[in-house]
Amino acid sequence: MNSRIEYWVKIPIGPIHPALEEPEKFIITLDGERIIHVDIKLGYNLRGLEWIAMRRNYIQLLYLVERICGICSFSHNHTYTRAVEEMAGIEVPERAEYIRAIIGELERIHSHLLNLGVVGHAIGYDTVLHLSWLARERVMDILEAIGGNRVNYAMNTIGGVRRDIEEKHKRMILDMIRYYREEVMPKVEEIFLYDPTVEARLRDAGVIPKRIALEYSAQGPTARGSGIKKDVRYNEQLGVYPELGIRPITPKEFTGVIKGDVFDRMVVRVGELWQSMEIIEKAFDQMPEDKIKTFSKDNVALAKLKKAEGAGIGRYEAPRGETIHYVRANPGTDGPAKWKAREPTFPNLFAVARALVGEQLADVPVAIASIDPCLSCTDRVAIIDSKTGKKKVLTEKDLLKASIEKTKEINPNIKAKPEPVGGICGGVRL
Amino acid sequence: MTPEELIKRIKERFEVEIYTSQTKTLHPRERIWIEVSRNDFKELMKYFQEIDPHAQFSIIIGEDRGDHLSATYHLELFCENSPSLSVAVITSCPKEDPKIPSLGDVFPSSVPYERENQEFLGIIFEGIPDPRRLFLPDDFPEGIYPLRLDEKGITPEMVKNAGHPYKIKKEGSK
What range does the domain containing B83 cover? Predict the structure, then answer.
């Protein structure tokens, strides 16, 4: 064994790296091209949110948790409200539940379209990136029309939602769904289900077997891509989702096989785009006329929460997987004694780190991108050759180049340039 | 398996305090809360894995509860069912002897959460396979645990305008 150690090369990826939603460090040990160990160091974006939360009241916390992540801002906000509602036993009007479901699915559509583009970019299909992000603008415009912002829509409040969905919004959303159904989805399916190069490149890359996904509690599309039929909206019988016919999507319905590779994770995302659109349409059909929140004013809610006791757990299926928030009341005060959140990327990272063992270095960008963190770009990777001690700095460009080279072996007509794209998700580590 | 069956099976084997909570949503959701001493804790967690070999481990919530430290573990049993079983296991340790057995060999996915709680609250997980820091920088002072509410926590001198951007002083002003 000792004679082989000489050939091992350690590659730190990060702390600031494209394929990661937040700055974190992957230290990859290589034997030739084969990865033999992946180590993770987090906390480069630690802002002490839990510490700050000890000094906030329940309403102020709503807006703090919303800013954990730019892409799943609704999910965090939603999960936190559920935790508080469970703690204090607050009922939510049915119409508010439907509005929550609609906004949640709109958010899922924009997050999945974003990830489809990012994975396309990681393998050198930049056209996919530009076109899917162009299509994504449509849903962003709608979220802006409803909530006033492209991200951080601040829709939830304790005991309901803050804004109603009006007739004009409904018309816009149904228009958007028609546009996606007729113009975007056929192209997306053509690329991610039937394109031979994409299939050859993504098949058998970054495989997470079902056993490892279960053992490491992988979440969301990462787990469903490995064939685990879990979806918190379905398991938890959340809100009105059972009425909307929620069910976990696995690649089996589309391709007939489950391998747990990057391709399967993308298939799950394509399937969930279809499902989200169905859910939104059903929600509009079933939505009753009702009030949208239990408490007319925030201070009424705070007065009620002052008397609350005990603890509550909120769970919700964010676009990337299960988000959990925990809130414990501090009776007599208007703020919680403890608030704690966990975002889905955390277990997924460790699952993908385990799964990368045995893969090639050129698969790292794709595999990491496929669990749907976001690409930001100012990073470098230093290769330190343990034999000579020489240091060679690889930029993201070089990594992308390696990834595109691998695609070129399959399809020599690819003419992509390895240019990094800008980051979009303001991921904040807790 | 229904929550009642699970509670019955656990009560047969362990002396624990069990209570349930229910949400007031359209489909009421039952959660099982189990309080267990740290001596029985690991056995209980192993028993959960016996009941469902694919039990999903979600989170460890470490808390400073004044005189003792507590850790809440959330598990999801039968994760492919609707509804699945949501179980929160609460165990605690005194502050003088903050030790809880590690679950690294039962649920491999618990290790990152244990590392997190170890550095933030100073709970020592006995037998943890990887005790390094995860989130805090390597030059963070030893013996200070940011989420502790007592003298081991962050002192006011360490705080620099946290959360109060409007209070930032200009250099040179008083």
Answer: 3-143
